[in-house]
Amino acid sequence: MIELSATQRGLLSVKIGCTPKSIGGARMRCDDNKAWEVLKSAEHELKEYFAGRLREFTVSLEVLGSKFDTMVWSALRGIPYGEVRTYRWLSEQIGHPNAYRAVGGALSRNPLPIFLPCHRVVRSDGGLGGFSAGVDVKRFLLRLEKEKVGLDLNHL
Fold this sequence. Notes:
Helices cover 38% and strands 11% of the residues. The chain has helices spanning 33-50, 67-76, 87-93, 100-108, 135-149; strands at residues 2-7, 10-16, 85-86, 121-122. Helix 3 packs across helix 4. It starts with a strand and ends in a 7-residue tail after the last helix.
């Protein structure tokens, strides 16, 4: 299950997995028409992504976090569909080459997984590293993209 939250300005959060509150199906309620349109756009784009027809998301995002976290999350947009980068690479991209562990912490707080593709970040030794929805979901997302572009993930 994927749960989406939005404001008038954009998609606010993505939660992957089941929680006691979400078992039994989706809960969709929104009294704000503009936020509802954001949710519908995000839902449509997710369906297209999972069907292999969408590689770049266009839905507006409302990214809330610390300055460091938002810098890390913004840099994720530079990782192309079907490719992976390392935590060290990401720390270098944001100008903090020795902060790869802090980068991992920021990724664990990513409120918009998939839309801000933290699943494309792996360890320097080729291991998967972590993922807020679990390593199996990360592996699934990487394999989904592999099928579309031929990414070599045999070691994962």
